[in-house]
Specification:
The protein has about 325 residues and is of the alpha/beta class. It contains 11 helices and 14 strands.
Length: about 325
């Protein structure tokens, strides 16, 4: 049975990824932020089947302890994942996302040099590293031009991966998921945030909801499809390469709001609230996933309508 370390296993993507790996028969170790408990969204059997260990990316001793066991694969997800949090504390985003990743990779490289472990590593980055220049589906060969603290810190993590791989021979794949959502996502993110406001409007009988900028076009993916893609890259991706995880289909946030409203069963007027606007919104962020499709066979399976329905259902009343 092959072994997999998932860092950030308690996060939104991490807990779905743990479930997917267990279903495929892997021996899973989930690294959690110190003081955190295994995610309650997993079943008791899933929690019991997973080995749980604490991880603090800012602490080199903690990183060394986590990687002291040999692993066949490392899926590195642990990060400051909220753009809003990164804007409030850019230095912390850099410390966790870029420097923390560098620590993980350096320890893994030391283990490889010592002959104790040589894992294939998949670094979960973000499509936001491409920035705001494109008006067509983006390719992995397009330049990286981050325009937010979050995206810049993830680009820093990618640079750490490139440098460490070239210097040490560590096998690293970079995954760039486009916008992901699904049941259980934090309400700081756009789909559950809009769904919560729409449900509140229905319950209150309100005709108006506050929104931010609804002009951007995004490529939305179900988190469960993203996890399948990460596993496909882990198993069949080429070290040293970056891969988009994308549907190739863009949707304007205004249309997204209409679709969520239909699922919720409410008809409202969207009123722009300056407090919800962001200074560095990327107007168009859609990906070309030809590379991952050709090399691994992955394609997204879950339609956006199903994802929206599952997000709404998970929010409850």
């Amino acid at each position: 049975m092959k072994s997999v370390l998932v860092t950030g296993a308690g996060g939104f993507v991490g807990r779905w990824l743990v479930r997917g790996l267990l279903e495929r028969g892997y021996a899973v170790t989930g690294a959690l932020q110190q003081g955190s408990e295994p995610p309650p969204s997993l079943t008791a059997r899933e929690r019991a089947a997973t080995r749980w260990i604490p991880l603090e990316l800012l602490d080199s001793d903690s990183v060394r302890q986590v990687l002291s066991s040999p692993f066949d694969f490392v899926l590195h997800l642990a990060a400051v994942s909220s753009g809003a949090d990164a804007r409030r504390h850019p230095g912390n985003a850099w410390a966790v996302n870029a420097a923390g990743t560098a620590r993980v990779l350096e320890v893994a490289a030391q283990q490889r040099h010592a002959g104790t472990s040589d894992p294939m590593i998949v670094l979960a980055s973000t499509a936001e590293v491409y920035g705001a220049a494109a008006s067509r589906p983006l390719l992995e060969t397009d330049p990286v031009r981050p325009c937010s603290p979050y995206a810049a810190s993830k680009a820093g993590a990618e640079l750490a991966a490139m440098e460490t791989s070239g210097r040490t021979g560590l096998r690293i794949i970079v995954a760039r998921p486009f916008q992901q959502t699904g049941p259980g996502q934090d309400e700081r993110f756009v789909v559950p945030a809009l769904a919560r406001r729409l449900k509140g409007a229905r319950l209150a009988g309100a005709r108006v909801i506050k929104v931010g900028n609804l002009e951007p076009v995004r490529d939305f993916l179900d988190v469960r499809d993203v996890c399948v893609a990460l596993i496909a890259l882990m198993e069949r991706g080429r070290p040293g390469e970056a891969y988009n995880i994308a549907s190739g289909q863009g949707i304007r946030l205004e249309e997204l709001l209409r679709r969520i409203a239909r699922v919720v069963g409410v008809d409202v007027i969207a009123e722009v609230d300056p407090e919800l606007m962001r200074a560095a919104d990327i107007p168009y962020l859609v990906g070309d996933a030809s590379k991952i499709r050709t090399e691994t066979g992955w394609v997204p399976r879950i339609p956006l309508e199903q994802t929206i329905a599952d997000v709404v259902a998970a929010l409850g009343d």
